[in-house]
Design brief:
Layout (H helix, E strand, L loop, with lengths): L1 H15 L1 H10 L2 E3 L21 E2 L30 H9 L4 E3 L6 E3 L14 E3 L2 H12 L3 H14 L2 H25 L25 H17 L7 H21 L5 H18 L3 H10 L3 H16 L7 H26 L19 H36 L7 H4 L3 H29 L4
Antiparallel strand pairs: 1-5, 2-5, 3-4
Helix pairs in contact: 4-8, 5-6, 5-13, 6-7, 6-9, 6-10, 6-12, 7-8, 7-9, 8-9, 10-12, 11-12, 12-15, 13-15
Length: 445
């Protein structure tokens, strides 16, 4: 028994070691560039370095507290010159904060980093395989806000609102439980070096489990289980698509240097456990949201209470805002479902109409779907912009928080919770209630 326990511990240490992530990155063509720190803290590339293929980043930085201390603690004292701030050093090397060289053209491209995180972090690196870089960049975007704010509305407006409502319920619970578990376990992300941080957007969060792996498992497999038998398509094709989606997202987190192998495996298994528990209850939850008289009041209170419970971190991280966004979106969608049922908007088709056959692809079908998507997304972006402009100053005024520095104000729980919850709650409500009503008015249903 002791030998078995020791074997499991060795396996866990092996899967959680940053060297395994670094080896995978090197196998995929991500090569770190070793640079010698300069007297004044500059991060200059080595001689002969090809700038067209290098993602330049100042080494020794990063969030999450897992970066090693500077090997030159006397930086800034030599020659009597102070080290420039980290952002200044990044500007010197990259031309703009967060810029990196495109592996295909060598041109400077804006790097995706969190607007509230001042640290750029990571080491310099070279991309040797452009195909894998773009493939895994796409894979990691399948778990980011841009994907959610486009994929979910497109599905609701153009494919099947019935499936979309249930899918969002699963997504909310998977992401909420994943974020809360991260903040309870508090395991750091893989150490850099040896890992190369190709992405730093979520570096301030903890790493265990990978919520990208959780959403990359829950969304495709929930789609598969919710649509099989409801829509006519080959069973093997749906299973292959869901598996490929999941594998791509999971491998992308290793490629980006954001998670260990253990983080990713735990995320997949955790997501499967949540699906096993919640999938049988989807009919009960959806029927409650649609028909119970006081469902909106209960939904808003439940999601708000869950948000308050999760906002217990001692320091700020991106998980706070993400959790509030997820809960707000889920509350908005659930409330919109209730009002749609009341007013007969987007009614569910009768059971005798099942299973559905995919429509014949035509120019008119594509044009109407594209027009619905463009109009709807514009409305959602306007809604988000207006609510953001109103809720942040209002929350600052109510809680007497200085609003001169918006970035710092948004890190306060008193501002972040109402701003994120109200903004994305309204975005969800507009997406499923007001936008379909607008489509009816414009004869685009």
């Amino acid at each position: 028994m002791g030998l078995m326990a020791g074997g499991w511990r060795r396996l866990f240490r092996y899967l959680n070691h940053p060297d395994q992530v670094a080896r995978f990155q090197q196998l995929c063509g991500v090569q770190p560039v070793r640079t010698a720190p300069q007297a004044n803290g500059d991060c200059r590339p080595p001689a002969g370095n090809q700038s067209g293929a290098t993602h330049r980043r100042c080494s020794g930085g990063g969030g999450g507290g897992d970066q090693p201390p500077s090997p030159h603690p006397d930086c800034g004292k030599r020659n009597g010159v102070a080290c420039p701030p980290r952002e200044t050093k990044v500007k010197q090397e990259e031309g703009e904060v967060g810029a990196a060289a495109d592996p295909a053209t060598g041109k400077k491209q804006p790097r995706r980093r969190n607007s509230l995180n001042e640290e750029a972090g990571g080491t310099e690196f070279i991309i040797r395989n452009r195909l894998l870089y773009y493939l895994f960049s796409f894979g990691t975007e399948l778990g980011n806000e841009l994907f959610y704010i486009t994929f979910f509305p497109f599905w609701l407006w153009n494919i099947d609102p019935y499936v979309g409502r249930r899918l969002i319920v699963i997504w909310v619970w998977v992401m909420y439980l994943g974020q809360c578990t991260k903040d309870i376990i508090r395991w750091p992300r893989p150490r850099s070096p040896p890992v190369v941080k190709v992405e730093v957007f979520y570096d301030s969060e903890y790493g265990m489990p990978s919520t990208h792996a959780m959403s990359g498992t829950a969304i495709p497999f929930s789609l598969f289980f919710l649509t099989v038998g409801r829509w006519q398509y080959p069973y093997a094709f749906g299973l292959l698509l869901a598996s490929s989606w999941c594998i791509l997202v999971c491998l992308s987190r290793l490629y980006m240097g954001m998670h260990s192998i253990l983080d990713v495996i735990a995320g997949v298994l955790y997501s499967i456990l949540i699906l096993i528990i919640f999938h049988p209850a989807l009919d009960i939850i959806d029927n409650f949201n649609l028909t119970y008289q006081y469902a909106p009041l209960f939904i808003i209170s439940l999601h708000l209470g869950m948000g308050l419970f999760s906002f217990t971190l001692d320091t700020w991280s991106t998980s706070r805002g993400d959790t509030a966004e997820i809960l707000g979106t889920g509350a908005g969608i659930a409330c919109a479902s209730h009002f749609n049922h009341m007013f007969g908007i987007l009614p569910d088709p009768p059971l005798d109409a099942l299973p559905f056959s995919p429509p014949v692809i035509s120019v008119n079908l594509i044009a109407r779907a594209f027009l619905r998507f463009v109009i709807g997304v514009i409305v959602l972006l306007l809604t988000r912009a207006v609510l953001k402009a109103c809720t942040i100053p209002l929350a600052c005024k109510i809680f007497r928080i200085p609003c001169t520095d918006i970035r710092q104000a948004r890190k306060r729980m008193e501002v972040e919770l109402p701003y994120r919850y109200m903004t994305y709650g309204m975005v969800g409500f507009v997406a499923l209630f007001l936008v379909p009503s607008l489509f009816n008015y414009l004869n685009l249903s």
